[in-house]
Design a protein that fits this description.
163 residues, mainly alpha, 5 helices
């Protein structure tokens, strides 16, 4: 389940529109993000240049397929259907797409194990999770840093207990 969430979030990040800002104030660059992800995974999983050259095209193929499914799933969430029957159909379609995303992931994990050893695939998946956690933490920290502090911070009232 964690993998699906991280994959979905990665898809969101890589499809972010030009209005998203990165550290240096420029627009989000999906190619740069992908290059940083590949470099991080290569280093953390200990991939050789040959392994990386064989692995990442297949990884990119998986991400493209998952992104397409995620985009379809996301479009279903944009507008609430008007009737209960339409709501039911919408929910079932979202669930179906979620299962398809997971099936794509499972299929590609098996393909990865034909390219790399299972131990390296495990390390790749772990590194991918670490990279995404770090990316989200940086984004959250940046968002926090960009918000102005309240003029009068709310104080927590201490409630005296009379016993």
């Amino acid at each position: 389940m964690k993998k699906i969430i991280f994959t979905a979030i990665f898809a969101l990040i890589t499809t972010t529109h030009a209005g998203a800002q990165c550290k240096n104030g420029k627009n989000f660059d999906p190619q740069r993000f992908q290059a940083e992800l590949e470099q991080f995974i290569t280093q953390k999983a200990g991939l050789t240049p040959q392994e990386a050259a064989r692995f990442f095209p297949v990884y990119a193929e998986m991400m493209k397929k998952q992104r397409a499914l995620h985009d379809e799933q996301k479009s279903l969430k944009r507008v609430k259907p008007l009737t209960d029957a339409e709501c039911k159909k919408n929910i079932q379609k979202q669930d179906e797409l979620g299962v398809q995303i997971r099936q794509v992931q499972q299929t590609y994990h098996n393909k990865f194990m034909h390219i790399l050893s299972p131990a390296k695939v495990y390390d790749v998946l772990k590194a991918e999770d670490q990279f995404h956690r770090q990316a989200f933490k940086r984004a959250a920290d940046k968002k926090k840093a960009g918000k102005p502090k309240p003029k009068h911070p709310q104080r927590k009232r201490q409630i005296s207990s009379k016993r």
